[in-house]
Amino acid sequence: MCEPRLDDPAEASIEDAIRSIEAEMRDEYLQPHAYPWVIGYSGGKDSTLVVHLAFNVLLGLPKSQRRREVHIVSNDTLVESPLVIKHIIDSLDQIKEAAEALRLPIKTAITRPPTSQTFWVNLIGRGYPSPNRTFRWCTDRMKIQPTSGYIKSRIDEAQNVILLLGVRRSESATRAASVKRYDNGERLNRHNDLAGCLVFRPIVELTTDDVWEYLGEYDAPWGGDHRKLLKLYRDAGGGECPVVTQKSDAPSCGSSSSRFGCWTCTVVDKDRSLEGFVESGFAEFGALLDFRDWLVSIRNDPEKRQARRRNGSITITSTGTYVPGPFTMDTRHEILDRLLRVQSDLGTELVSYEEIEEIKRVWSEELTSSAFRRASTTVDTINKDRA
Ligand code: SF4
């Protein structure tokens, strides 16, 4: 186990709190069953602390007692902020190497949405308008489903899993309410949507200061310290987008408090993490910010949207509000062209070859359907016809 770098008696309280959390984690790990742990790792401070403590627990046990597998799982939406996904990939590599060298039963994994459900295939291929608070089609497809798929596979193998999440009551009022809603007074709570998944929130009572204090004082057990993480937060200027495994957690994804979300996120008013990175010297990300802002600006432009949905129907809500259909085919081409220009200027892959192929497949399917011929009228044309 790693040693503290500073010897300050004032640290006793955080020391005690962490000791008691580790004791509880150890007790759970030593329960007489074989259910694996799955730790949702977003690369942010809270899930980093949970992984850190899990390492400590395993290192403190004799090899004969390290019987249960520990899976550390991150999700890559394929539109993550570039520096954040680099941090996740680099730190998972380090964790994997250290676990192998120390013979810890740790496995690492990164889940991703299938090509048919990525941000670009839905936005450019199917023409879904960029997500907003009322039509947030992204979180389930790009985050919840991939992570849930991984958890379900572990449940198939072992009947149950224990999902460790780095959620804390003091994160926000929304988080406090969600913790309260699912708190049954026991250590483990049933997952809302996944049968066989039991949720363990070991650091639920820690404050943000506690988390930073501990990460600042102790080196990462997989090597190095947590300074890179601290710098990432400083550069981004704040919060994070957490691991999301159920719809009731989804409001925290893409909320005003989350800043480590997808760089394409149009649910937030401003992408503060990208803005922070640009202000911290990563000027190249300015092009991503401009692209995101342009996506926001065209979302409700009637000339860019079909009047009807892809199946040819017109949507009127129960309150009588007319809802336009997806982006027109011309607009989808325009978005792809612009995206490819930004990609070429940046020299970093933003949309993959597989996604472009899938986009073309969706387009050709749509162009040959009879519903498309009815659906392709723009909102403007319909308004003009009405006039
Ligand atoms: S960060 Fe934004 S774009 Fe990404 S999944 Fe969450 S709400 Fe959607």
Automatic annotation (TrEMBL):
GO molecular function: catalytic activity
Source taxon at top rank: Bacteria
Signal peptide span: none
Domain Phosphoadenosine phosphosulphate reductase: 38-266
Matches recorded under Gene3D superfamilies: HUPs (3.40.50.620)
InterPro entries in the record: PAPS_reduct_dom (IPR002500), Rossmann-like_a/b/a_fold (IPR014729), Sulfate_adenylyltrnsfr_sub2 (IPR050128), SulphurTrfase_DndC (IPR017598)
Protein name: DNA sulfur modification protein DndC
